[in-house]
Specification:
The chain is an alpha/beta fold and 628 residues long. Helices cover 20% and strands 33% of the residues.
Amino acid sequence: MDLLSPWSLAWLGLLAPLVALYVLKRRRQRKVVGSTLLWEAALRDLRAERPWQRLRPHLSLILQALVLVAGAIALARPAGGGQVPAGARLAVVVDVSSSMAAREPDGARIDRARDLARSLARDLPPGGAMMLVAAGAEPEVLAAPTADRARLETAIDRLRVRGPGADLEGAVALAAERLRDAPAGSRIVLLTDAAIAGNVPLDATVPVEVSRVGEPLVNHAIVTLDVRAHPTEESSDRADVFVRVARYGEGTGDVRVRASIEGGRELATRRITLSEGEPTSVVMSADLPPDASARGSVVRVTLEPVDGEDPFTLDDVAVAPSPASRRLPVFLVGSAPASVTRVLRADREVELYVTSLERLAEREDDAPPLDGLFVYAGATPDDAPAGDSVVVAPTGAAVFGVALEAPVERPTLVSWEEGDPRLRFVRFADVHLGAVRPIAGGSARALLTTDAGAAIAALPRPDGETTLVAFDPDDGDWATRPGFVVFFRNVLERARQRRAAGGIPPGPLGAPLRVPVPEGQRATVRTPGGATVVATSRGGVAVVDVPAEPGVFVAEVDGRERFALRNLVDPEESDLRPRATFTRSDGSGGVATVEAVEHREAWPWIAGALLALLGIEVLWGTRKGAPA
């Protein structure tokens, strides 16, 4: 038995003034007498006597003292934490999936798991050691086996919800590996809400105990969000906001679904009734024009219960780019082959600007940066622009640091990367190229290879990617094939999607942001909750550890903003009811079920005893014939 709030025992100090009151107070009975003449001497003696009297046992004093003791122990929150035999090791595995952020009357589930972990750390006997493992999508050891209470407290404080998914099996296996040679009596304790569907095998060389935190909760969630273009005669910017919501739990409940522009006006609101097992779809129409920089606005959808509060807020907010983000500014720099220009002009969602390197060099230093896809034909600048770019038929000796060799006439095609998105539905069988300048390796990743070397390659960078086509498509028959058009459409679609995503690679809720930043510089990220997180770039990327919050994360680098959208639209995580079963091998080829022990603290029982004692004390103090 351990105390989760031991400082609350300080309330026992009230016993001292309680006893003092009983020492100072004389207990007398009220009587009716015919005259006070005979009492004068007693009154003189009473005035002269000392106030302190010998403590006499009273039932009311005993009851009141028991009330104080029971109240102090209840506030200290006693709980069974278990003991580790002397010299043995304990591994505590804590589930840090999204569902552990669900709030209950006594706090979030992850907070209860922290309290239990602290209880286990305090119960370590001399010679015992404890390790801490966070069970997220990838298990992480927060503290190696140690008896240092301060180090364990620091590691426990680092426990926080990481995002969807929890590899409980892998986390237990990792802990078991670290306890492979541990002394007898060592064990693993798994703290989880068991809000996972299916069986979780927990095979380990040491005993595994599963302690469940959290009660089954009713939850309403956004499980799908999509924003699609739906132009009409009245508005070319009309779009449909498609939202799918669900209820996890018995009964029915009313919710409001609100759609708005991130940081701006409200678009529409719907009130619907949800029932268990019956997801409901809502479609709301709105005009979503692009902003001044031709970027589409971000649509924010929130879910609000009409009555009461939702215990799980991570799935009550979802964000998505509007269809206006498909409008892609394309800056065509140089004299491009006619076939390339024709493909760019044929895309209705491309805003084409024809310019030159000289005109770009004349732009003022304080002019806003151009935001879109750059297509270079012939000469290229020394450095690649931020974002995506395409280079066709280069004329220089190198492109963005990648060398080009001398032209080779009519090389034979050898292979192409069919799995790359740019080559989706693109075939080069029976295609004949003209002169090709083979791409000389370096950081380039070959997409189309000839017997002379790479003819098309990808040049990845932390802040974008360049697609290098090292030949003139019009010099040969590729431009006459359907695959040529499909290739450039794929390139445009890839650039469009990456631009709509905000310039930061997508990732799950709670995952660190990988912000492209020049080496050694800092990236400042503003979270949806308004907090600011700063990280320094290493290798051209700043890895920013951000909280598990849905919404828009805005990163500022060199005065330029990039953003990342994070959502939790996962029915598995939104169902907060315990559904997992835990099993392990019984040693004879069979499988045994590991029963999850629901963690229950003892303080509610003590609080009930306190109320009972108070009732008895009131009855005793108000009984007939009790002294006044």
